[in-house]
Amino acid sequence: MGEGLAYQEFQSNGITIRAAVAGQGPLVLLCHGWPELSYSWRHQVPALVAAGYRVAVPDMRGYGGSSAPEEVAAYGMPQLVGDMVGLVGALGETRACIVGHDWGAGVAWAAALWRPDLFRAVAALSVPHRPRNPAGPPLALLRKAGLETFYWFYFNREGVPEAEFERDIPAALRRVLFSGSGDASPDRDMSLTLRAGGGFLDRTEDPAVLPGWLTEADIEVFAAAFRMKGFRGPFNWYRNIDRNWEVMAPWQGAKVLPPALFIAGTRDAVITSPIGRGAVETMAQHVPNLRRAVMIEGGGHWIQQERPAEVNAALLAFLAEDYPASI
């Protein structure tokens, strides 16, 4: 993933976390999302190290070389944030900037909300901060709105999405990574709603030629990890969505106070929906120290892989202002 980078195993929050660690300086944690690995940050690590930071890039709980508990409840937000708190301690550090993409962004937002003493700055890619809706749990609200074809419901069916994705792991990863990217054709990009009775991959495309930012060797890195661990752990993150809503009750109305950065591609399906656009537009109300929202024209969901130069520039500018390498 970068020169001088070595993977280590750490005991954190009762499990083993495998993380790549490199560099010297203030600590930056890079938290990947679904369905990825620490490898997703391969383009960011060298830039951060060169800028004077110590970088830790974990395989998140359920992924790669980290522990993958069987129980659904083991993947709630307190456990996920606790893993990152424990990792900071295991590294001998007392502060960090936490950076997350996709589900990793959710972890980063929660970590900054719950532990601003530890996580002094936060950067989120693709998933904006969404305050807890007091009206009710997310799945209940979606069901009430008649949106039961939304992919969250499908991912909550234990064993069903696992079987779909594990049938042909490389093909599943190619489809998801390509169809969620800015390179997908507008009429074939990844949909977050499913056809009745269909699977998640039915509306994705297996490209004849990979885009320039993704190689067959990259696909194999991801596929090898999922052959080893399967997809139960990653899907269990989704099976805690309503439980996370319950856990967040004490923070109802609380604001994320550390300095913050948001980055996303303009073709990311997470932010092109009315709900996603609304979350981006109102984010500063709930994240008062949001420095900027960087929208990368034509970028898709896998923005740190698709557009690494632009992501690195935005991230380094934010860090220089709010979490400098030299104090």
Describe, in plain words, how this protein is organized in 3D:
The protein has 327 residues and is of the alpha/beta class. It is built from 14 helices and eight strands. The chain has an eight-stranded mixed sheet, with helices on both faces. The protein is globular, with a radius of gyration of 18 Å.
Any chance you could write out the topology, listing elements then pairs?
Layout: E1 6-12, E2 15-22, E3 27-31, H1 45-50, E4 54-58, H2 77-90, E5 96-101, H3 103-114, E6 119-125, H4 138-144, H5 151-155, H6 160-166, H7 169-179, H8 216-229, H9 232-238, H10 241-247, E7 260-265, H11 269-272, H12 274-286, E8 290-296, H13 303-306, H14 308-322
Parallel strand pairs: 3-4, 3-5, 5-6, 6-7, 7-8
Antiparallel strand pairs: 1-2, 2-4
Helix pairs in contact: 2-3, 7-8
**CATH hierarchy: architecture:** 3-Layer(aba) Sandwich
> What is the CA-atom radius of gyration, in angstroms?
18 Å
Biggest sheet strand line-up: 1-2-4-3-5-6-7-8
* Number of beta strands: 8
What is the level 1 CATH name?
Alpha Beta
Could you report the average pLDDT, rounded to the nearest whole number?
Answer: 95
Calculate the terminal CA-CA distance, rounded to whole Å.
Answer: 28 Å
**CATH superfamily placement:** Alpha/Beta hydrolase fold, catalytic domain
Sheet of most strands:
8 strands, mixed
Total helices: the number is 14
Examine the coordinates and then state which fold CATH places here, giving the name of the CATH topology.
Rossmann fold
Count of all domains: 1
Shape: globular
Order of helices and strands: EEEHEHEHEHHHHHHHEHHEHH
Low-confidence stretches: none
The residue fraction in helices comes out at 25-40%
Structural class: alpha/beta
Give the amount of beta strand, in percent. 15-25%
